[in-house]
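Appendix B.2, paired examples.
Example (i):
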Amino acid sequence: MFAITPRLMLRPPWPEDAQQVFDAANEERIVRNLAQLPWPYRPEDAADYCATAGDDPLPHLLIFDRLAARPRLLGTCALDDKDHGVMLGYWIRSDSWNRGYASEAGKALVAMARALGHDQLTATHFVDNPASGAVLRNIGFRETGRIEQRWSEARQSRAPARHYRWHADEQDMADEDHMPARCLMDKAAA
């Protein structure tokens, strides 16, 4: 799957993207806010992600600024099948924070989830990262009121995480703000 938004291009990672992924994610203040990335983050971790992300039936996508002179990797976003449903996750490189990229990519990913037939999504963020909560609310997620301890590979410990959910019935999907992307699916993903 691919998506084009007003400023972004989302596409699956390829093995040759590994160095760019490593360069963008290799910062402790990024990975400490994620559940699955280790710290220190190594080039092998990025290479493994780029080599295997396409094996998942749900989208794992790189986020590129498509308006730059050369497309610039800003981060990643993905849907993952978890015990409690399909979970949305993302990260953005720190020099691109506070520009709306996470919200724009997240809205495109929600549009993809709908195109794939998902009418519910979940998400979490560590309580000490309230900016992610603002992004999730902007995408259309609602807090569930649940906070529980969640493992962080980078922190090597559990930390309190706030839970969110998105449900298609609660969204006015006719509103252009909620579907800013043109999604392109290949036959394997459809």
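Example (ii):
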Amino acid sequence: MLNYFKNATKPMNRETNINSNYSIQLISPKNPLLVEAIKLRFEVFVWEQRVPIEMEVDEYDRRCNHLVVLDKQQRVVGTLRLVSQGENVKMGRFVIRKSHRRRGLGTWMMQAVLKIAKQKGFQYMILEAQTYVVSFYENLGFEVTSEEFMDAGIPHKRMSKAL
């Protein structure tokens, strides 16, 4: 699973800079930024959303690539992970630090990851969206593919997008 994105520890090109305040990097599990990304996920999922702590980190974190958004001080303020599933890629664990929300970072991150996944030859991107953000993904071209279901006590829907 690790090598489906080449150059996974290098910053992405200039077009991925939303402005001079942020940059995006695609990182491997060996990158030290992964620790900071997981801390951010705990901040959002465990502390804000009350996801049980034992559900937040799993076996995929050490086997997949992660996208991180860094601020000017090189702090992780957004992250998501990408798990290869044959011809598809599953995006998940998508969070943005509360103080950096509503700045367009989520859309920017998704546009970057969709472009990368398409360039790497994946056919579909799949995800499990919390129900309250389904419209965010629909605006990016994702379609709902399931009824609502509960995960970690939070309502979700499966979604997919052809790349």
